[in-house]
Every structure is written in structure tokens, then in C-alpha cells.
Amino acid sequence: MSDGVRASDNRCMPRAAVQPDASPTPGAEAPTAFDGLGKRFETFCRIECGLAANSVEAYGRDLRDLFSDLRAAGRGSVAEVTPRDLVGHLAALKNQRHMASTSIIRHLATIRVFFRWLESTGLITENPAGDLDRPTRWKKLPGVLSPRQMKQLVEAPRPEAQAKAGKGAPLPLWLRDKAMLELMYACGLRASEVAGLRIGDFHPNLGVVTVTGKGGKQRLVPVGKPAQVIVRQYLDECRATLVKGTGNAARPDRSEGRLLLSKTGRPLERVAVWQLVRKNAKLAGLPRVHPHLLRHSFATHLVGGGADLRVVQELLGHADIATTQIYTHVDSGRFREIQRKFHPRP
Hints:
Low-confidence stretches: 1-10, 14-31
Order of helices and strands: HHHHHHHHEEEHHHHHH
Radius of gyration: 24 Å
Strand content: under 5%
Largest sheet: 3 strands, antiparallel
Helix content: 40-55%
Structural class: mainly alpha
Shape: globular
Number of helices: 14
Strand order of the largest sheet: 1-2-3
């Protein structure tokens, strides 16, 4: 699955099958009706499986799309759904909504997990998704920035750039942007991970950050010296001002202990991280840059420099090394060097 949503068929299943709900009370909807089942499944994914909020939200969106198509096909409950209905839904995603193959595969994974959950809890007796094959996805090589381009990006936030945009003192927001970019590249962080960092997650004496990834899993990631320096400067010169506000009207602390804050003193959200990365990429003259590109660049530069793949896996927080192996195919310069060195006819 994509790095955004992992929909493994095995990690999100009940520990033991339970009996279906008792007969509904008069006036209550049947337990196999669509309404309510999506929310129950989301609760199961959040509590029993411990999935991240973004993953649970993606499951919910996929199921709402599915339920809409099933209703349009005349199905009134999950017990009436046939394999043909599910195949038709997936075909519609491709032919009518023109979804990318990665998105369709995610929808398929959602369907498989959802109907296996229904079967395990006794809400259906036959699983219509049981024979749906999971296609092998052709892995598209991720885009990366060169070290020179990364240097341009992390150096884009500057006082003069902020002043030119009409956003000068007393809020040195360029320090926040620079600290965010340095951390993302130094540690290979996802947008949600850098937005979720707390003050206590930064350990300057040890030179590491505690990162909370998908499913609440934590990992320790070293922080390079340039990132350490700018984060300290941001904490000393910017964050306290963001928390307290400017002028005579002091405001309550709304930071929730987060490291990176918006100009109103609230935690920086994932969407804001995307916007700030794109804004600074534009300042650096770099088109089509998104937060995950920094993560791809982090991993590719490590592998290209000779880092052990298992170490890179741990730093990225990948559960499966197969996800990390794609970075061995990205550094074409290293491939050319190996080919010249070892091939009998270079």
C-alpha cells in the first residue's frame, strides 16, 4: 500500500469472532444495514487496531463511496452484496472517477478488511470480497530532490523573504519554517509526524527526536547539527512569542505543548505543513515539491551514501523492509558507478 494508508488484511482483524447483535428492537434498523456499520468499523479500527486517525478517516471515505454505489445498485444491506457489486464499484472508480491505481488498490484493501470484519463478527455469513484478488502494484520510483536542491529549499526561509512578503517583525515566522524543513529532511518525517512533535520530543543533549508514527508507534531519530541549531533558535526567538502573542493583549497558552505553532499560537496542522513546504519551495524556485518529497530525499541520500537498508527502515518507521527497498532503485548515479567498477565491459 502507499505510505499514506496501509490497509493490511491481517493487522486489522478481531481477536475473536463474536455473535451478531440480538434481534433489533421495534423501529430500530437491521444490524446489516449500511448506516452505522461504517462508524462501528471505524471505531474498531481506531480502538482495536490502533490505527492512526488519518488511516481511519481514509477507511471511512472509502466505505462511504462504496455504500453510495451499493445503494445505487439497489442493495439495502451488506447481506445483499455480491462479488459482482464489488467488482462493479472498483470498475467505476477507474472508469468513471478516473482514480489512480494506488487509490483503487487502497479502496480494494478497505473492502477486503471491512467484509472480513463483518464475517468475523457474524454480521454476514458469506464474504463477497473473499475472492477479490489483490493486484501486484507496479512500484513507481519516488521523485527526489538533489542535495543541492535540498540546500536551496531549507535555506529559502529568511528574514528578508518574510519582510518582502510584508510579514516582518515581531513574528519571525521564517525561523519556524526553517526549523520545520530542517527537521523533515534531517529525520525523514512525514507531514503529520513533524506537525505532531511536542516540545518534550526534542532532546538537544542527545541529538535525537522522539517521533510518533502510524499506529502510535514511536521511534528515536538522530537530528543533524544544522537542524539542532535552527530548532534551538526557533525555541529561543520565536515560539515563546507565538504562544503569548504580541502587543499588550496577552492570550492563554493554546499550544498544547506542540513544538511547531501557527501564528495564532495553535498547533501547526498537517495541511499547514503542506502549504508551508510549497510556499518555501516556490521561494527556492523548485516546482512540484510536497512534504513526502523531503522524506524520499532523506532516504535516497542515505542509501546513496552507503547506509544500511535496515537502518534506513528503522529511521523511516517502515514495518516492512520491502517498503524501504524501493530506495535502492532511485540513485542512478550510484548504479552507474557500480556498473563501471564491476562490469567486464563498462
